[in-house]
Amino acid sequence: MASFSSSPLFSSSLILLLVLFSCFCTQRSYGRKPSSESHFHTVEITSLLPSSVCSRSTVPINRQSTMEVVHRHGPCYSPNNEVSLLTRSQILSADESRVEYIHHQLSGKKDELVDEKVSLPARSGSSYSSGNYVVSIGLGTPAKTLSMIFDTGSYVSWTQCRPCSVYCHSQQDPLFDPSASASYSNISCGSPQCSQLSSAGSPSGCSSKTCLYGVVYGDQSYTVGYYARDTLTLSGDVFNNFLFGCGQNNQGLFGSTAGLLGLGPSSLSLVSQTAAKYGKVFSYCLPATSSSTGHLTFGNYGASRNVQYTPFDASKGRSFYYITITGITVGGRPLSINPSVFGSTRTIIDSGTVITRLPADAYSVLSSTFKQLMSLRYKSAPAFSILDTCFDVGGSTIIQIPKVSFTFKGNLVVELPASGIVYAIDTSKVCLAFAGNSVSGSIAIWGNKQQRGFELVHDAATGRLGIGAGAC
């Protein structure tokens, strides 16, 4: 009688067992020991890339004073595809200039207007980004609809105005004509409102006793014109004597938008000017991709139950919304970052900056840990623009990404979705969607790449920021 070990069935089973064991050992020994699968996102690579078709949010928003938010480089803003799209390299380059603009603002340096000519001195350098997200408002009597970028890092609201005495870029809506509005008036040079511009850090001047405003966003980008007042309409709510800039010279990458709504904490911002009705509270949800939609809501109409709060740190300044990061976790691993790194660095949340900027010491630990976990599955790839932690995922339709969460003061923990962790260059390459500040002590910025899909409640009245997932 033949032995059991020599039977064909046993031999086949033994070979299969050895193959499976070999595969298991190989998987376990490649690189370092992998973290639990529960600490990884599993996503389709195509879900990280924008679509050419607009997909509007299906999340119901039953609130007053709410406007739809669209990305100005996506199909929801320009259904006829008339908007010129920027490449990923251009977007990141513009983002870097945006960060330089914020650092410039905080440096205390001021730009000067050239009187009587409604212009600013031109400068050489890179282009800039004033922001990416657009809402529609009404201005004047009767109200004219204008598509405006909204920006939490700016305080002066402005729109292009006829007669465009120097230059106006092409915009989607008809140009605002002050002479056609029954409620429009210019601000005089000697008025308190004109003095506020200068005290707030905005270049100001005079032209025939009319107050001039100026906002410099970057090396080649600015808007200059007459400081004025008119009637503002937001989702049916009407505000008389709204102060804004009536732009006569507007240079930069404003796309086809009509201008900008400044939602910063300054006394000149839209938030402060509408405080009597909205109580200095607004919230927004930025769309997850440029091909979907979000919302912007003014007033305290009740945030979602899953919104948790962290305090603003007004002691750091009042020109931006300052927050405090206390920790970062990657793939279930709390990063070893000295508390003094974030304690000594000012951090703001900004709707106009795309990529979150971190202190160099914090970014170094984040990047090395993320790279360690990603290298278990993918090869490293060359840097892309400002993103230096990249990976080759070619051939994979589904990829796995280590989860990343941030903890803010007050023990607010925010776990980012995969789209807030990596920046997809194409179907074969992704990069960590964070960057480190090159200059020690530079301000850290929580950018919009990491904000998308969350409800972000800016409650300036009680001095806190609320964050909740799954809002749009």
Total beta-strand segments: 30
- Integer-rounded radius of gyration: 25 Å
- Category from helices, strands and their pairing: alpha+beta
Widest beta sheet: strand line-up: 3-4-11-5-10-9
Low-confidence stretches: 1-35, 111-129
* Alpha plus pi helix count: 7
Percent helix, as a range, is 10-25%
Largest sheet: 6 strands, mixed, barrel
Percent of residues in beta strands? 25-35%
Features:
six-stranded mixed beta barrel; four-stranded antiparallel β-sheet; 7 helices; globular
Summarize the structure.
By secondary structure, the chain is α+β, with helices and mostly antiparallel strands. The chain has helices at residues 8-29, 88-106, 192-199, 270-273, 275-278, 339-343, 360-374; strands at 40-44, 66-71, 133-139, 144-151, 158-160, 185-186, 204-207, 210-218, 221-234, 237-251, 259-262, 281-285, 293-298, 308-311, 321-323, 325-330, 333-334, 347-349, 356-358, 379-381, 390-392, 398-402, 404-408, 412-415, 422-426, 429-432, 434-436, 444-446, 455-459, 464-468. The chain is built from seven helices and 30 strands.
Could you walk me through the main structural features you see in this protein, from its secondary elements to its overall organization?
- It is built from seven helices and 30 strands.
- The longest helix has 22 residues.
- It has 472 residues and is an alpha+beta fold.
- The N terminus is likely disordered.
- It has a six-stranded mixed β-barrel with strand order 3-4-11-5-10-9. The protein has a four-stranded antiparallel sheet with strand order 17-16-23-24.
